[in-house]
Amino acid sequence: MNVVNVINEINSQTEQGITEVYLVACGGSLVDMYPAKYFLESEAKKVVTGLYTANEFVHATPKRLNQDSLVIVCSHGGNTAESVNAAKVAKEHSAHTIGLTHNKDAALNEHSDYVFLYEWGEDSDVKNNPMAIILQLVVEVLNATEGYSDYEAFQSGIEKINGIIKKGEQQVADRTKEFAEKYKDEELFYVLSSGASYGHAYGFAICSLMEMQWLNAASIHSGEYFHGPFEVTDKETPFILLMNEGRTRALDERAKTFLLEYGEKVEIVDAKELGINTIADEVVEFFNPILFYSIMCVYRAALAEVRNHPLETRRYMGKVSY
Amino acid sequence: MNVVNVINEINSQTEQGITEVYLVACGGSLVDMYPAKYFLESEAKKVVTGLYTANEFVHATPKRLNQDSLVIVCSHGGNTAESVNAAKVAKEHSAHTIGLTHNKDAALNEHSDYVFLYEWGEDSDVKNNPMAIILQLVVEVLNATEGYSDYEAFQSGIEKINGIIKKGEQQVADRTKEFAEKYKDEELFYVLSSGASYGHAYGFAICSLMEMQWLNAASIHSGEYFHGPFEVTDKETPFILLMNEGRTRALDERAKTFLLEYGEKVEIVDAKELGINTIADEVVEFFNPILFYSIMCVYRAALAEVRNHPLETRRYMGKVSY
Questions:
Q1: Might you give the EC number(s) for this enzyme (chains A, B) (predicted)?
Q2: Strand B266-270's sheet: what is its strand order?
Q3: Pair (B114, B71) in one structural domain
Q4: Which residue from A42, A285, A317 is facing B63, i.e. has the nearest CB?
């Protein structure tokens, strides 16, 4: 599947071009969609976007959904009932659907006009992973419908990001072991970020810490931190701050200053220090979460190792009925 | 200020009607905007909406912002720097601005084309509090621009909700004391909800628990709970579930079933049991969060009392520079 061809084909089947893009999934797959939501909300003058956890899209389907809408649904295993239903609902409203999954026999595929069977695992180039594919899809939507002046810079970023990540992973290898040793007995973490990466702060909290490590966790938007959450800051409470490069860096820097003054257990993961700046200024902010996902996988692996709690361990997911 | 007149006046000053509504604030004021975001995303076929923490709106201003946009900014004290700046940015982009505040001398007012000096406190009718005013404003926008078929049912709900709340507050008085006694030594709470009330689950976590009680807390969308977060469920971890009436109730019911099976410290606050059903089915879901806000104020007051931690106590907010 080629993102350019798919979007051009869908766009040509609409009356006046794609008018809205719905991003619908659950948990980790929803996290992968957040950068695309942020991108369209920031850059589009016409195309509308909406990000939905799948079951809310099914039960409270937006009235705007129509035959010129594009609904992108992502499910790693491809059989998540709510996500499959969401794609079905989209088709019942005559919308165009794109499914992303790692399973060629997924039930999701039955309701997807186009299926991206994406690559997964450490050997894959991140541009072929769902987060980057979804971002590329919405970039194509914007470019096809109203034009995107930074299109070339974005494409150049897509070619660069995997190399930046490979270097970054080596750069953090030792410090993730120190992190794991230092925090191995903690029971709760707050994860802060902003801009395109806020979704990944949420993702690291709910997937990496809650689901995979059974640790308490919560994401906090760096901008919201000062309007309530910061009152829990003390020398005992661990905070992880994902610092973006780009327009919202000022928000993360403000959180950093406060955390270093009043907190003590503060882990800073800085996209700028990790070399993301070789991507052009106009588009760099959209690539932060792609970098953070891979880098934070190194952190969580180190934590899992020292805690002797393998990342695959579940007590409920796929084990009991719910 | 009259919501109908204000919106009609603004709408008449636009070229083709208000094309988008941006809801911009910080912390508790942002929470008050969530039902309006949910309403427009659900009901509108043309009008676009965006919800922003103020500093992100300032630093990553959406390119869509234009002279036909309406930007609603809310700040209780009216001088929150990020919110004042957001209104200023909106005016620099020639957008229309409405400010909501409890302070007649607020800096926010300088950048607001219209100012709602809202009522506050236990004696006020909730329809005159910011959450309901903002919801009424966007209902008027929808009605003025593309028509809203359930407009009358919505207005009837606005007239009823305060009475429902007054009864509900009495109904929960004893159980909030039991709640406070049972949970007084807990250090962490998860707060679940869905639909229009998700914002209030977030609000109860960040304002009532983190800010006002220095307790660890996180909101979880009832639909997302099963895709990661539920792995932390056990007999020791407290969960508060705000059960909506309306289309997303199924999501909350699913969470309830699981929590009662695998958890033990589970507090359920059910809008249906609290009598919200006297509001018409087509619109009842939008009123859940207005009910929950007032009801959860009784819960937090009981908790503050038994924990001997007054709701006004702060260590950073308004006390140190940040």
A1: 3.5.-.-
A2: B216-221, B188-193, B239-243, B266-270
A3: yes
A4: A42
